[in-house]
Amino acid sequence: MTATTVHEPTHREALWELEDAFERGDLITIFGRCTVEYDGRAASSLGLGRRLLLLKPDGTALVHTDEKQKPVNWQPPGSEHHAAVRDGRLRVRSVRTSPDETLDVHFETVEQLSAMAVSGRRDLSVTGSEADLRNALLDRPAVIESGFEPLATERPTDAGPIDLFGRDTDGRPVVVELKRRRVGPSAASQLQRYVAAIEREDGDDAAVRGILVAPSVTDRARRLLAEHGLEFVAVEPPSSTGDAGGSTTLDTELSQTDAVDDSAHDPAGDATGDDDGEPARTLSADEESH
Amino acid sequence: MTATTVHEPTHREALWELEDAFERGDLITIFGRCTVEYDGRAASSLGLGRRLLLLKPDGTALVHTDEKQKPVNWQPPGSEHHAAVRDGRLRVRSVRTSPDETLDVHFETVEQLSAMAVSGRRDLSVTGSEADLRNALLDRPAVIESGFEPLATERPTDAGPIDLFGRDTDGRPVVVELKRRRVGPSAASQLQRYVAAIEREDGDDAAVRGILVAPSVTDRARRLLAEHGLEFVAVEPPSSTGDAGGSTTLDTELSQTDAVDDSAHDPAGDATGDDDGEPARTLSADEESH
DNA sequence: GCCTAGGTCCCGTGT
DNA sequence: ACACGGGGCCTAGGC
């Protein structure tokens, strides 16, 4: 039996169970009527109510209600849990330093307390991240633009690391910013920062191009891109189920790879002139690290 | 008794309990050996292990291990929970649409299943937010700069809403961006976007000033600010316990309000020239919306 | 420890 | 619905 539960314990019984569970490194759930106070980076307080407190052996504390994905109050990993009986209530206090933060949960009554031994893998492999998108594009750089040659990923600049850096067929440097989902103004600004940084650093006469690669872009972001002569290429993230126009299931082979549309990019700079109707291409990311 | 628990139930017993709990709108916890698969905006899978599944009546599903604050897998509010016995395992499936997402948790064995009726307030009042900082500054605009006159908050522009907009003693428009914590490059870019937008819209001859108000700024962000002629004012967020130099406890009265330093801001633009050692001022935000 | 940026971000607010 | 930005964001990766 790896899970022990007590119902309606006295505060003192609950305290004993808690101390034992802390000792064993168990995952602990406490359900009961409680108040919650937090003070640290901000401050908050929560009146009486039935809630679930989750205590992890790594120092995490989570207070959950019946709504929302995020806990109504919490303490990050690395905190220290302490339990005590004060003024007829069970007080569970979770504290950490740098920054100094304290979470206090005062239980008027504990309806249930459980302790469980957790085990097993906790690392999961996620597909569909921006890194997957980057790898897929490294395999098929022509999706960005026919003849695009990748030179570096995460290239450092004064303004931060560039997702993907390369050169176009004319030999002009190209800064590529990747996003796994629809982008807003901040992504446009981010790309603009990087382009400006490369222009300052390389200082070549050749103008630096900036291309935002994402599934789609908001109107405002599109305008901001245009203002700075930046470009946009629509690409669905790998493993996305969403499709724009009866897309086929993801194959390892991308269908119209070299049908990159003959419209030459205009060197003038008022780019982003791709037709709006252009459907986003879907990428697969079967091969890791090629 | 508002919490019911069954230990080591058969899958069929667990299923009955689950259906009842769904019906009652209870908060449910299931602890046992399980695998987890997710497919939707991304995709992931997680091998066998002992974990805690939390199901909320609002459709939220959370899979927690013994580490980290964030669940290892989850489903947002609005999803629909379904339970079934398949291939000798208890399958809990949480599904939502737009975007289409499915979370499957397959329990090989259920060690414990609990259902509890949650109640009580779930809204908490947090102090120390950016809005509190804004209100404090509206009460004491001289903290930003002697003679600064606030004219609008959340003023809309082509680039998005400006936190605080006003005028300096020379009548020049001032864009203020507020941050409750140390800022990096993105905040500098954000401010720059807003300043450019105001310059385009108002189109006055008077140059638009931009001031970033935050507790502190990174080197990179400071350089970016300087490049665009933007300024920085150090202000601690209200209710912060952190102090730079034996700060007093937060009073409603701010101590050296009008000791704003006589160094006139240079109209040239290579600003941000405040001495680095300048200690941040601490604000209180006692009065809401005065 | 700090810095930088991603995230199945979540979440509230406005349109 | 989408859009936009805040968050006690959290978390990972580098330095």
Automatic annotation (TrEMBL), chains A, B:
GO MF entries: DNA binding; single-stranded DNA endodeoxyribonuclease activity
Domain of life: Archaea
EC number: 3.1.-.-
InterPro entries: Endonuclease_NucS, NucS_C, NucS_N, NucS_N_sf, tRNA_endonuc-like_dom_sf
Residues annotated as domain Endonuclease NucS N-terminal PH-like: 27-118
Biased composition (Polar residues): 238-258
Positions of the UniProt region annotated as Disordered: 235-290
Main location: cytoplasm
Compartments where found: Cytoplasm
CC per GO annotation: cytoplasm
Domain spans labelled Endonuclease NucS C-terminal: 129-246
NCBIfam families the record matches: PRK04247.1
Role this protein plays: Cleaves both 3' and 5' ssDNA extremities of branched DNA structures.
Name of the protein described by the UniProt record: Endonuclease NucS
